[in-house]
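Tokens for Na+/H+ antiporter subunit E. Go.
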Amino acid sequence: MHRLLPRPLLSATVFLLWAVITNAASLGLLVLGGLLAIVLPLLTLPFWPEPPRLVRPWRAVRFLAVFATDIVTANWRVARQVIGPLCGLSPALVEVPLDLRDPFLATLLGSIVSLTPGTVAIDVDQQRWIMLVHALDAPDPQALVREIKDRYELPLKEIFAC
């Protein structure tokens, strides 16, 4: 079973995302999603570093709820900003110093920041452990740094005990 599903959580995530994105109401779409859930992890296995061990799964569930809420509220905020006067925006490039020292978690943090509307992680410098973030509106760049560290980096450190 481990040979067929080397990363079962990734396979489950691919399948669930496929079902949600395609609004899979037919058996054919579900079968295709199942095939993708098996094939994609197998094809990408050589590129995956060994992820850190999940130590606090209940904290992960809470973190996912916070992250989902942040995505919804950020979508709303960005939509209002784009529809409103653009001259009121304060775009910024912000350097976020990382306490994480695990390449997998640093990449995960960059992905989380990029998935939240209004911010994009441009680079994760693993030599200096700095993440460069572009923000659509950051009138106080240090507040953005604190928010990323408090809402995302600290929980990741707790979840994976880093």
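The longest strand covers residues 119-125.
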